[in-house]
Amino acid sequence: MDDPFTETAGRKAQAADAMLEKLIHDPSPDSLKAVAADPRLNEDLALALLNRRDLPREVLEDLSKNAVAQHRKVQLAVAMHPRSPRHVSIPIIRRLYTFELMQMALFPAVAADVKMAAEETLIGRLKTISSGERFALAKQSSGRVAAALLLDPEERIMRAALLNPRMTELLIAKALKAEEASAVFVAAVSHHEKWSRRNDIKMALLAQEHTPFAKILQFAQELPARMLRDALLNSRLKPNVKSYLRALVEQRGRSQARRGD
After folding, report:
1. N or C: which end of the chain has fewer CB within 10 A?
2. CA-CA distance, 168 to 119, in Å (whole number)?
3. How many Å apart are CA 138 and CA 147, to the nearest integer?
């Protein structure tokens, strides 16, 4: 025989869910605040509420304090909401897992400063996460995170980061200037079909002590004299190599003068 008390409780729960579901679509900020603070709010209803992009900041703040926000999906949705207050989203970021942070950094609607906080948190964890996770991040993460993995001690991770579709010329040039840039990484960029053709990267490679000598000669010939001169200003190449390249710049200057360029 069915328990009448259980049946009554079930009907009340269904009625509460129906009421909350109706209020989720209400345009009134007061109604939305009431829903966000309601202790009967479950995970599905909270996620449905968070699908609304017009939620007031106060609603998101109340929802973050509700017991339902203990669910990870709700936490992530609150942090990723474009109207979520920074004092709500930033503390949540620190509690997120690796691939939740990656998802946040890639989601278009997330505010730029929140994305940056997620990226910085992720970059700060790189030395403590597994090789497999770093490899996955190298392939799939945002450009800034992948750029940090260009300096990873594992070659397969570095090469995966180099192939990341969000990688940019600027990020690679910056990584080449880092003290931690390995000879393997520098050689990989020097011989890369795409990146070795970019002038800013050629300049960065001409400032790198690990750049293969044959590539130094090639890039020096390909760069305009002005860019070659700039590349040598803070170069870590051996003094004799820099002297040779400076002589090359001077020779070009004399040749241009003779031609009247």
Report:
1. N
2. 16
3. 8
